[in-house]
Design brief:
It contains 3 helices and no strands. Helix content is 90%, strand content 0%. By secondary structure, it is mostly helical. It has one domain: Helix Hairpins. Helix 1 runs antiparallel to helix 2 and helix 2 packs antiparallel against helix 3. The relative contact order is 0.12.
């Protein structure tokens, strides 16, 4: 079994199943904090899928896209947490 077979037949299905489970938590989440964490984890799993796909197809351009998406996800999480802090102070 080569690395490409391992990535294609084991890692990708595990990432896809985890995406489904995380999306369920995102939809069902009891609170806004749980949904923010689930959204961040969704984007992180998406980054993993992009990275594995980049390795399988041997195209490095996808890694640049993944880095930009990771930066946007980080800034979004910081913005959500800032919003939650400001919302608590106003209440």
């Amino acid at each position: 079994m080569s690395l490409y077979d391992f990535l294609y037949y084991f890692i990708m299905p595990v990432l896809c199943i985890s995406l489904l489970l995380i999306f369920y938590r995102f939809v069902k989440g009891p609170g806004i904090v749980d949904r923010v964490i689930a959204l961040d984890l969704l984007i992180t799993c998406g980054l993993g899928i992009i990275a594995v796909y980049s390795i399988i197809t041997n195209q490095e351009t996808f890694l640049d896209i993944a880095m930009i998406l990771a930066l946007i996800a980080f800034l979004g999480t910081v913005a959500f947490s800032y919003y939650l802090i400001k919302r608590k102070k106003n209440d």
